[in-house]
Specification:
This protein is an all-alpha fold and about 280 residues long. It is built from 9 helices and 2 strands. The protein has a two-stranded antiparallel sheet. It comes from Iodobacter violaceini. One of its GO terms (molecular function) is nucleotidyltransferase activity.
Length: about 280
């Protein structure tokens, strides 16, 4: 299993980095390639979502195709930043305020397919659009945001292994601990302290305290994104969202934290860009 996991990572990481750094930027010839790359990730995740949410029949089969169409339409919002900011703020409200209630109450997904269709798009599409927007700040800026999830997950894993005694959410994800979460936050705070602030528009104008506050917010939503997907899987009795990524489970298993981080980070970025 470890060998498979490593081989998959060795294939996927260079592919992701090549796409981030070498696909054409928006406004240049061939810029549709990056949008298509982000759309492909959303389509794969939507295929897993229809399984996770219990969709059946015709709607389950066409849901990934519908997701591709809706994502293509919404991608035009990148040319109307004010509307895009509204969408990102809406997604941020979900992750910052609705998700904690969802996790606390352990709400189950509705049996109505149409509600799960909309919920899936609400979870996935803002993150996909955020990938497009944040890359306009530059490849390194996008990579810096993605790295928050990787730093948080890695630090949480090692701190949890070494010091974990108090369960964070035993009925949702028994392996996670408060000590691990604290370690993840510490890792992100250290990462943010050393992060070159000029990677982002007017980033150097923000105080260190403001940057660290943003780090705390993004770390918190990353944990909630992880826990929300774990809750859905536990409720339906699934270990992984799929086997699309050998040794890693599914796409949703890899991007659950980023689904929360990306729209919140994008809302913050657009706020400084527009105001």
């Amino acid at each position: 299993m470890l060998k498979t996991r490593v081989l998959t990572a060795l294939f996927l990481l260079p592919l992701l980095l090549a796409a981030i750094f070498y696909l054409p930027q928006l406004g240049t010839t061939g810029s549709l390639a990056w949008i298509s790359f982000c759309g492909l990730i959303m389509v794969a995740a939507s295929w897993e979502w229809q399984r996770l949410s219990g969709m059946q029949g015709f709607i389950a089969k066409v849901y990934p195709l519908l997701t591709a169409v809706v994502f293509a339409l919404l991608s035009q919002l990148i040319y109307t930043p004010s509307m895009l900011l509204g969408l990102m703020f809406g997604a941020s409200v979900f992750w910052l305020f609705v998700t904690p209630c969802w996790l606390s109450k352990k709400w189950k997904l509705a049996n109505a397919a149409n509600l799960n269709i909309l919920l899936g798009w609400a979870l996935l599409l803002p993150a996909g659009l955020a990938l497009i927007v944040l890359r306009t700040a530059g490849p390194w800026a996008l990579l810096a945001v993605l790295a928050i999830a990787w730093v948080a997950d890695s630090a949480a894993y090692f701190f949890g292994k070494a010091f974990g005694k108090h369960k964070l959410a035993p009925l949702i994800s028994p392996g996670k601990s408060w000590e691990g979460a604290a370690g993840g936050l510490l890792g992100v705070l250290i990462y943010t302290f050393f992060l070159p602030k000029h990677l982002f528009f007017h980033g150097e104008l923000l105080s260190l305290a403001a940057w660290l506050a943003i780090a705390v917010i993004l770390t918190a939503v990353s944990v909630m994104g992880d826990l929300l997907e774990s809750l859905f899987k536990r409720q339906i009795g699934m270990k992984d969202s799929s086997n699309l990524l050998p040794g890693h489970g599914g796409v949703l298993d890899r991007v659950d934290s980023l689904l929360a981080i990306l729209p919140v980070a994008c809302a913050i970025y657009l706020s400084f860009l527009l105001f």
